[in-house]
């Protein structure tokens, strides 16, 4: 007697649910029964089981799926791979696991967010260091032309700005609006980031292409090391 046909959608959905919950034993049972590894859940942004497990930080489930042939570079509806989702979720160990398995460090979502920028946005310095150690590009840009340094400066993440500069990030890189890291930090009112960038030699005469306004840096008589009292920029957000 022929074996009963496998209901691909039902099995795929069950595997997706197991991956979502990090239920590795159930995922293994379903895979053994013929569940398709790369089935996409149309009602959940077209996530595959791997993308969903990575987004949830379920390392054991991710390893199982990869061992069973899951597509490491499968993308969700927004173009994000498992690595992009793991980085955005702040899952450092998951990022390391996926990088060890050969995930593309330069993968990006449809919005242009890179793995490195995702790690910056969640504020995980150790993850940023890991990605840089593995060779992630310092100068990769999102859809608005922001490098990791510009995004870190716009977010006021001074520790990240320092790390990126120490690793050789281009201090004068501009986004598509003409804003440098210095303009980004000043526009958002992040004085400490501005001080750091100026200490590192950022161009005080940098101009934003949108408003063509000069960055104004005023002397601070109370600070002999970094003479900055206030920073004023007459510019709009410029895509940060």
From TrEMBL:
| Entry-linked InterPro entries | Ankyrin-KH/SAM_domain (IPR051631), Ankyrin_rpt (IPR002110), Ankyrin_rpt-contain_sf (IPR036770)
Q: What is this protein called?
A: Uncharacterized protein
Q: Indicate whether Repeat appears among the record's keywords.
A: yes
Alphabetical list of SMART domains matching this protein: ANK
> ANK repeats at which positions?
45-77, 78-110, 111-143, 144-176, 177-209
The answer to keyword Repeat applying to this record is yes
Keywords noted in UniProt: ANK repeat, Repeat
Source organism of this protein record: Cafeteria roenbergensis
């Amino acid at each position: 007697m022929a074996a009963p046909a496998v209901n691909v959608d039902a099995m795929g959905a069950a595997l997706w649910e197991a991956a979502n919950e990090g239920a590795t034993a159930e995922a293994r049972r379903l895979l053994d029964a013929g569940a398709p590894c790369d089935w996409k859940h149309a009602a959940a942004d077209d996530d595959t089981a791997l993308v969903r497990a990575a987004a949830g930080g379920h390392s054991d489930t991710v390893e199982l799926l990869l061992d069973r042939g899951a597509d490491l570079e499968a993308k969700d509806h927004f173009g994000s791979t498992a690595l992009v989702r793991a980085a955005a979720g702040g899952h450092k160990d998951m990022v390391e696991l996926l990088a060890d398995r050969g995930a593309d460090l330069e993968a990006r979502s449809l919005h242009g967010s890179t793995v490195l920028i995702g790690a910056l946005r969640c504020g995980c310095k150790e993850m940023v260091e890991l990605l840089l150690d593995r060779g992630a590009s310092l100068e990769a840009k999102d859809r608005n032309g922001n490098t990791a340094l510009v995004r870190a400066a716009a977010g006021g993440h001074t520790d990240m700005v320092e790390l990126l500069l120490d690793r050789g990030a281009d201090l004068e890189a501009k986004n598509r609006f003409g804003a440098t890291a210095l303009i980004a930090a000043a526009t958002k009112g992040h004085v400490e980031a501005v001080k750091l960038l100026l200490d590192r030699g950022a161009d005080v005469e940098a101009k934003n292409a949108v408003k063509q306004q000069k960055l104004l840096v005023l002397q601070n008589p109370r600070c002999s090391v970094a003479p900055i009292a206030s920073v004023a920029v007459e510019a709009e957000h410029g895509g940060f």
